[in-house]
């Protein structure tokens, strides 16, 4: 994390994610647990891991960031490890990845921050200062042991 840049407080994160989080219905038909990694697909600045952890955590999935907030990521880098119920992981993935990509795009300079959005303002403070040429970094969830 960039020095002096405190992560958004939990209430700001919950205010931003709760409407979508309440719509998530994990598949609880099986008791399977597993592990996965959030992998950078394209280059940029990683921002939003506290949000990702909150989204997954609300569904019983643990998150261990592998890169610091505000760090540059390149394709193939594991940004985080996640573990827990597979149904919950799959259900939370779209929302978690969407927030990670949106905030990382702001931190990468690929999109401007909405000054009225606490999460985007936080991401802007992590900004690398040099805009990227594309839409910012993209990420994917890769389940361990999947073909």
Short description:
The protein is an alpha+beta fold and 147 residues long. Helix content is 35%, strand content 20%. The strands form two sheets. It has a four-stranded antiparallel beta sheet, with helices on one face. A two-stranded antiparallel ribbon has the order 2-4.
Total count of strands = 6
Mean pLDDT: 90
Order the strands across the largest sheet as they lie in space.
3-5-1-6
CATH homologous superfamily heading: Quinolinate phosphoribosyl transferase, N-terminal domain
Order of helices and strands: HEEHEEEHHE
CATH architecture: Alpha-Beta Complex
Q: Give the total of domains.
A: 1
What proportion of the residues is helical, as a percent range?
Answer: 25-40%
The CATH topology comes to Aldehyde Oxidoreductase, domain 3
The assigned structural class equals: alpha+beta
Please identify the top-level CATH class: Alpha Beta
For the report, how would you describe the main beta sheet? Answer: 4 strands, antiparallel
Into which percentage range does the β-strand content fall? 15-25%
Compute the number of helices. 4
Gyration radius (Cα, Å) is 15 Å
Assign an overall shape.
globular
Low-confidence stretches: none
How far apart are the termini? 34 Å
């Amino acid at each position: 994390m960039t020095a002096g840049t405190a992560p958004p407080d939990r209430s700001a994160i919950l205010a931003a994610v709760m409407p979508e989080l309440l719509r998530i219905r994990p598949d609880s038909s099986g008791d399977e647990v597993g592990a996965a990694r959030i992998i950078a697909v394209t280059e940029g600045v990683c921002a939003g891991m506290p949000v990702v952890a909150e989204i997954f955590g609300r569904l019983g999935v643990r998150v261990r960031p592998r890169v610091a907030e505000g760090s540059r990521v390149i394709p193939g880098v594991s940004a985080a490890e996640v573990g827990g119920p597979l149904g919950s992981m799959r259900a939370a993935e779209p929302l978690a990845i969407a927030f990670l990509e949106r905030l990382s795009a702001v931190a990468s300079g690929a999109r401007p921050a909405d000054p009225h959005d606490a999460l985007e303002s936080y991401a802007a403070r992590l900004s690398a200062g040099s805009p990227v040429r594309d839409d910012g970094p993209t990420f994917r969830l890769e389940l361990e042991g999947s073909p």
